[in-house]
Amino acid sequence: MMSDNGYYGQYGGSYIPEILYTSQQQVQQAFDEARNDPAFIQALEQQWQQYSGRPTPLTFCANLTEHFGGAQIYLKREDLNHSGAHKMNNVIGQGLLVKRMGKKRVIAETGAGQHGIATALVAARLGLECTIYMGAKDVARQYPNVFWMRQLGATVIPVTTGSQTLRDALDEALRDWSGSYADSHYLIGTSCGCAPFPEMVSFFQSVIGREVRQQSQAQFGALPDRLYACVGGGSNACGLFLPFMDEAQVEKVGVEAGGKGMALGEHSIRLSHDLGQPGIAQGFASIFLQDNQGQLQETHSIAAGLDYVGVSPIIAHLAEQGQLRMTYASDQDVVDACTLLLRKEGIIPALESSHALAAAFREAGTLSPQQRIVINLSGRGDKDIFNVARAVQDAEFPQFLRSYLREYPDNLQLASDAGQGRAV
Amino acid sequence: MMSDNGYYGQYGGSYIPEILYTSQQQVQQAFDEARNDPAFIQALEQQWQQYSGRPTPLTFCANLTEHFGGAQIYLKREDLNHSGAHKMNNVIGQGLLVKRMGKKRVIAETGAGQHGIATALVAARLGLECTIYMGAKDVARQYPNVFWMRQLGATVIPVTTGSQTLRDALDEALRDWSGSYADSHYLIGTSCGCAPFPEMVSFFQSVIGREVRQQSQAQFGALPDRLYACVGGGSNACGLFLPFMDEAQVEKVGVEAGGKGMALGEHSIRLSHDLGQPGIAQGFASIFLQDNQGQLQETHSIAAGLDYVGVSPIIAHLAEQGQLRMTYASDQDVVDACTLLLRKEGIIPALESSHALAAAFREAGTLSPQQRIVINLSGRGDKDIFNVARAVQDAEFPQFLRSYLREYPDNLQLASDAGQGRAV
Amino acid sequence: MPTLSEFIRARSQALQTSERLPLLAMTHVIYGYPTVEASLAWMRRLLEQGIELLEVQFPFSDPVADGPTIVAACHRAVENQPQMQLCLQQLGQLQRDFPQSRILLMGYLNPFYRYGLTRLVQDAAAQGIAGLIIPDLPMERAGQFRRDCTDHGVEPIWLVTPATPAERLASIARQATGMLYCVSRSGVTGQKDGAQQALADYLSTIRQHTDAPLAVGFGIRRRVQVEALVGQADIAIVGSALLEAYNAGGQEAGLALLASLGII
Amino acid sequence: MPTLSEFIRARSQALQTSERLPLLAMTHVIYGYPTVEASLAWMRRLLEQGIELLEVQFPFSDPVADGPTIVAACHRAVENQPQMQLCLQQLGQLQRDFPQSRILLMGYLNPFYRYGLTRLVQDAAAQGIAGLIIPDLPMERAGQFRRDCTDHGVEPIWLVTPATPAERLASIARQATGMLYCVSRSGVTGQKDGAQQALADYLSTIRQHTDAPLAVGFGIRRRVQVEALVGQADIAIVGSALLEAYNAGGQEAGLALLASLGII
Ligand SMILES: Cc1ncc(COP(=O)(O)O)c(C=O)c1O
Ligand SMILES: Cc1ncc(COP(=O)(O)O)c(C=O)c1O
């Protein structure tokens, strides 16, 4: 979807400190050129295929379909991307753009760590320096991802300000960029941020929806009747939905994180139920969860990738226009949906993606067996073992961890017990 | 590669308790029919593509190539399969065969847990009951995999006899099969076991090498000069090598686990250096690590999937015939190779696959820039975080685990401290 | 009442003949930090010292253009739940109590946006606030805001930086009225002639395009940095350093810093 | 010296008129468990009690056809590093000391294979061992082995199971000479008539194809199970149950079990 000069209705735009003006313009210009350069598109498609394994398949789920007795259920398998999530589509695109711009370093923010890992992977592959900002709380909660980022050669900087989560990491990344724009690119991980990021990220993610169109025609000779995607920042949803915007008969359903309840701080529902309000922050205009003074608020989701305080201006606009329907799923619904997919189809979904599953499962039975729905499985769930084990209250997992800890090299245990940080 | 009535030279065959004769024959017959049934092949290819995401790409590694200054280095990306390893190719094939035979249950052994997860995934998808045997030591070491198997609905049985590892799990699975053959299929995870398993597993894995042939022609207009694969049981090696057996000019290199040293028990080198001897055990004739009385011995590798005591009769035969060259890589070489791939190409390899990398890296610089090598990246490495973190002596990982444990629901901690096992 | 630039020019004139360095002092205080009361007391104290320009930052949860000290203080201030309306009233009272100084309200867009930008300008004007600084509002998107400012006699204060392209810098500078906020990221240590030269070039380029007073902020923390500005700019902005001094030793330490800089 | 089947037939004859149930006892002992000495002492004790057939299992690290009790004992025995050559010699000594009984050597293929199958047959023959049981050597692959056995006068003992297809069962049974080892997995409780009938059918089918003595093992642990075999088989094999009794209470408990079963 092309923006109107960076705007989607009243949302979008570029509200950034003056110091970033030049870099922002540079990205805008580089992207405008690249998207129209067949050589760039060819290189992009080659990396998508040869590095990330695209196209990802469209998987028919016979057992689930039978279980709900309604629509035929298909999954778009973004979990099979290199790195295990759709994030890879975007980082490959922006990574190639960085090379094109001749910059040597990328900065990224990450919440769950998925975008951080994807960025670190691509940075390694393209020979770019890489600095990842991550809320200190997220570093603590998602350390396995931090570990891999560091192994990949990235510098991970825990952000100790504010709520110490994604939002603060984003602020800090912007601050870094303000000082390093000359040689650094800010590689935003979702379709948020100042123009042209929402449009650019969506452009790179739209490969998802384009493939779904082709695969639907090839596998069942029609377009799907309904599409489901979870909405964190909105990039996987944009990627799935945008190539279908001309088809009003294909219903698009965005699913937000319902978390633990409807009180502010317990969820990350920005669009459904009008829980968020228009705002302008972190570089763009959109709907944000904020108080009456315009202060952004804390959010919650069982899926670390969905607890963002804002949302893509593209999604905000389309929702406002009624071109997509927003709904949400609670933490509990999500664990149930995850378990059901595991048992019925032998696929381990990310908890983020399980939001889309939960909403689709709620509705599948009300559709007719002639209808077909496609759920975007934005990522795989093995990364979520720490969360899922806790959610299902597995008793052996802590036992395993304890015995692992007992065997860990001794000196390191002491060092880390004393909180002395990294030894390497 | 077609066997001579289950034999490859002096290796292979079917040496099983009489009670399994009928089931073995049944598998043999079902496989012989299925492999010649276009409908079966079509269903197989469909699941490979739509469920597991095949074809997996062939990735050119520009940075590594430059780094070594020798041959052009390509990776066959089996890590991008559903479940993260080549194991999926085989379990899909045998899973479909089980449906064809009308059986309702599968049994499998697993060491690292990769084959166990792959089997549990496919069993869930095909609606089969699933029992996984796993050495009690492996259960303790590889609990995250056990967790997912159970979440997938599989019954995981820790085997407490013998060395409590893969070998014992295999024995126990055979025992289960002896009592349950009427409705159960023993879904062997590598190209070992009684006929027709080595041939069947290799048949299903040969999709790897077939794709490499096509992709080589498409991407660089020639066949590769050299192929590398790690050799545990031998299935990923068979899968890569067999479609190239008519091409003597394509050198095939199998890489075993050199472990910590050359003393018995410190490695899992069965073929290189003649450390193993001919034997007949676990249903087939091959080369095994054994003492002078024919007792099978304990093995070691940093990669849990490579510490098998025997080896595929196909690999044993080809090595004996000089049709492939066997070498090995030590635990330390493997960690280094893993790290190098991470940093240079942004790909996280399984420690198993890192053996193939290590051997290829050793040799790449001695080849000319006109030559091309393909290394089979049999699996991805995120599953190995517990091993890699320990190997690189990361100081924050134990810190993360401790704080995670502190927040784990209390009652469960107590239950598990008391060693009371599963709560669910 | 004189316009902001008239005010600044008059005070600059007066300073030429004073003991102080001939630069106006613009000091930065975060409303609500560490508490609303304490921040107001600190502002009052600064105004009593004759500070010409008081920059009051309305705190925001996500102050992306600020450095760590100010970020931390903003987060703390947000916890005190600052209210825009009350803030404007309290600043109005200060302005009335200290007619010899001018108060500028600085803040990120979202709290202003939620309050209503037009309403903000109206209320700020009613309270006698001289100017508004919004670092994340680009001039291109500020048409209505600028009209409102003109209508109500409040100065919109724009920023330029060393990274601002020449043409854009010229355009912004040309449109500056009350003052132009010149950010210098390069910093000036006084030792490095090269850096000093770069600052001089930067400011003289700006000067070519505008007669508006120039305010310069680049982490001023030593007198030699202020001295380097004499003759090239009109206003020295003291932000983070003042906050750090305040954090370390309260109002007294803050004032001591300003005295050591030669601007009170 | 009589052949194995002649020996069995003669002893069966004799038992018809004894106090004991008219079935030969075949008791199973693992060489090297819990130690080599203890296992030899236990064999000797059994032979002293008049056990007709002693089945000695040479332990293997991977005994895939055995249940948990025997598996655990084999693993323990392997730790004692049993040597094939010594084992054969020691069994030979036993055979010489107890000429009224027969010793059968059972084991998985690999230790025999490493020793050399031909050499094994030769050495077993030299030591007077009457038969060899190798559960994982299929008859199809045993051409040379059978010729060696014939040449040296050692009986290869084949197994059949309820799962063995009719034709194959017939073929194996027809080729059986010394005895046929009939595994019954279904178990016989004595209570369930259906199961008892199934066993009877199984054995009578086998009997149609061979005159060789039939040995039956299916986890015998109660007298009623042995009684059920009378008239249908020649030999009752006591394996796991004997090992369990031995584990629980040593030789005495083992003998007590055999007595309670009516076969000593
Ligand atoms: C697997 C997965 N799905 C979805 C999301 C949400 O992001 P977005 O809404 O941009 O697709 C994330 C973010 O980390 C993710 O990791
Ligand atoms: C990733 C991976 N590679 C290789 C192997 C070794 O098995 P094989 O030699 O059968 O390919 C395993 C076994 O678990 C594995 O998980």
From TrEMBL, chains A, B:
Top EC class of this enzyme: lyase
List of residues that carry N6-(pyridoxal phosphate)lysine: K87
Pathway info: Amino-acid biosynthesis; L-tryptophan biosynthesis; L-tryptophan from chorismate: step 5/5
Source species, domain of life: Bacteria
Known catalytic reactions: (1S,2R)-1-C-(indol-3-yl)glycerol 3-phosphate + L-serine = D-glyceraldehyde 3-phosphate + L-tryptophan + H2O
Record GO terms (molecular function): tryptophan synthase activity
Annotated signal sequence range: none
UniProt xrefs under PANTHER family: TRYPTOPHAN SYNTHASE, TRYPTOPHAN SYNTHASE-RELATED
Subunit structure and binding partners: Tetramer of two alpha and two beta chains.
Name the record gives this protein: Tryptophan synthase beta chain
Species classification: Bacteria, Pseudomonadati, Pseudomonadota, Gammaproteobacteria, Oceanospirillales
TrEMBL record, chains C, D:
Pathway the protein acts in: Amino-acid biosynthesis; L-tryptophan biosynthesis; L-tryptophan from chorismate: step 5/5
Active site (UniProt): E55, D66
EC number: 4.2.1.20
InterPro entries: Aldolase_TIM (IPR013785), RibuloseP-bd_barrel (IPR011060), Trp_synthase_alpha_AS (IPR018204), Trp_synthase_suA (IPR002028)
Catalytic activities: (1S,2R)-1-C-(indol-3-yl)glycerol 3-phosphate + L-serine = D-glyceraldehyde 3-phosphate + L-tryptophan + H2O
Coiled-coil regions listed in the entry: none
Keywords tagged on the record: Amino-acid biosynthesis, Aromatic amino acid biosynthesis, Lyase, Tryptophan biosynthesis
Subunit organization: Tetramer of two alpha and two beta chains.
NCBIfam families xref list: trpA
Record's protein name: Tryptophan synthase alpha chain
Organism name: Pokkaliibacter plantistimulans
Name of the gene: trpA
